[in-house]
Amino acid sequence: MVFLCRKGNMGFTFQDTHYNISAGDYVILPNAALASNFSASDDFQGILMNLSEAFVTSIAIRSNYGIIGHLSLLRNPVMKLSERDFRICEAALQYLHMRMEDEKHFFREELLGSLLTAHILDLYDIHARSNKELQVSERITSLLRNFIELLYNGEYIRNRDLEFYASHLCITPHYLSEICKKVSGKPASYWIDRFTIQEITRLLRQKKLSLTEIAERMNFSSVSYFSRYVQKRIHLSPSEYRKDC
């Protein structure tokens, strides 16, 4: 899901962090299911686009920059645009919306894919211009893509040890943490914990589930170990978090 704020303000929560956006901000949510508590000012105007993961994945872009932007968006989904970049993004989204309505186009899917590809490359350019010092090889981006893919596939439920991921990628734990920190500013353990806590807090909001059931689902050896893990990372016990949510 993406939305471009044209006027007014909007607030929302993404991965337990609250964001407030205003005109000129572009929000890209890698996983819209993690966003909630949307509220908008009376004068809010924006452009919203919800694209299926299958469609976005089908677009073949010859660039490894995607994983860099993806990690950045997982940390903060809000991009602050210059006036020029705002106009470019606004025009692209408006044109995409218009062409989506043409359901009789014989090559509709290919057309929309090409338009979206052009827009994604513009977003890469915007991000790269604001991170000029970041130079990453194709080897590193490939390793990081595979690492994040393991997490998206739920491997963190079965394995939370850095050594497992490093071994799977045929590199050392130190090197995996080093390249993660270079690209995202955070070590590999941060991303393992982030995906884990993201799932734990989702389960805690389902109050019909007991702490024992959640600990078992997440493959913790005991409820006490599960509680210590949560307390250390969000500074609240599972019961305290559940009470507040």
TrEMBL record:
Keywords: DNA-binding, Transcription, Transcription regulation. Residues 142-244 form the HTH araC/xylS-type domain. GO terms for molecular function: DNA-binding transcription factor activity; sequence-specific DNA binding. It comes from the Bacteria. The keyword Cell inner membrane does not apply. InterPro entries: Homeodomain-like_sf (IPR009057), HTH_AraC (IPR018060). This is AraC family transcriptional regulator.
